[in-house]
Fold:
Amino acid sequence: METYLFEVGHLLFRYFHIVAGIAWIGASFYFVWLDNNLTTPPQWKKDKGIEGDLWAIHAGGIYEVAKYKAGPEKMPPHLHWFKWEAYSTWISGALLLSLLYYVGADVYLIDPSKAALEQMSAIALSIGCIGFGYLFYRLICKTPLLNNGLAFAAVALSFLTAWTWGIDHFFSDRAVYIHVGALIGTCMAGNVFNVIVPSQKQMVKAISEGKQPDPQFGLIAKQVSIHNNYATLPILFIMLSNHFAFTYAHQFGWLILIALFIVGMWIRHFFNLKNRGIYKPSVLISGIVAFFVVMLACAPWHTIKSKTELAQAAVEQVHVSDEQVWQIIQSRCTECHSQTPTSAMFKSPPAGFVLDNMAQAKQFAALINTRAVVTKDMPLANLTKMTDDERDLIALWVEHN
Ligand code: HEC
Structure:
């Protein structure tokens, strides 16, 4: 029952997180688009203090949007803030992280081959690292660096690289990616909470009192919302990364993450330029090329034993029998990957992947090879203690199958 509740919580929090994230990033994309598509309004609107207007049709309705230079003469009774999208994404993310990586620390957070942490110390370390990363970000936002986009990006990315490399020393590969996501998500939601919303509050207050809003405050809000904007594509990749073991489970997974982070920012840059009327396909193309260069670099060149190496082993081994492989699978995989798992953690086969007989093993040989030989992230957290020799035997078997 407990594991069933775990699964239901997992579904609920992940569902919530995706929906909230779509609402947040969707609203953010929409407003960037809106700002960049405003046209000069007619004189009568300008006289009212409107600096840009836009007409749109959507779902059977025609909409008129107007952006004020400072604000309307009188504050409207209903002003939409768009802040709960950010807060609920963060809250659902925190719930998901706590459930999977804290409650399920033994499976998802701790990797005994890196550091033999106890559940509580691993959790404390996780919170401490995210807190430390967030404080560092807040600190550099208070320096003059904030006004120099490129220098800021260089410092922030160097820090992120060191931070990611650091946590790679004691958290599981999968957890490393999710922690980077948690740190970036915390910085983004923190920007909304600590900077953007307070600055908007100040603006609304000033307008309602008939005063000029302090431009300095708005300027900082603008800068940090640019940070959020550049982080959107990288953070979406991190949200998806759990499906791509070849990235996080790679020997240099932390470096691949940083490289893809930069590629994501660079591609975002193309869209930002385009929105400002600067069309530079070279930015997009170089971003896509860089993506493939990273993919090429993380191809399993070194983990896959070459055919000759395997052949040499084959001379000694001559032949790997189905029975031998079946024994390995039974002792290392079916605890989880069965219609009736015996694992304490999983009561239904994870990812619906079942290895209950040899026919299934043969059918899914390629998948087994991918996760047990190439990325080596199965068995999960190597809970069933698969040995390297066994992985070699599987590789050999797949090769001859
Ligand atoms: C402790 C439980 C556990 C053990 C033992 C385990 N796995 Fe997994 N496996 C999981 C979980 C959880 C997932 C889903 C998450 C993921 O894809 O990373 C998964 C997913 C997979 C997938 C992806 C299936 C798909 O269609 O997406 C493959 C392939 C796989 N495991 C193979 C293996 C092999 C081969 C072994 C034995 C060498 C093994 N696993 C042992 C827990 C386990």
The radius of gyration is 26 Å. The pocket of heme C is lined by residues 245, 332-333, 335-337, 343, 345-346, 350-351, 353, 367-368, 371-372, 378-380, 383-384, 386 (CB under 6 Å). The chain has a mean pLDDT of 91. The CA atoms of residues 50 and 68 lie 4 Å apart.
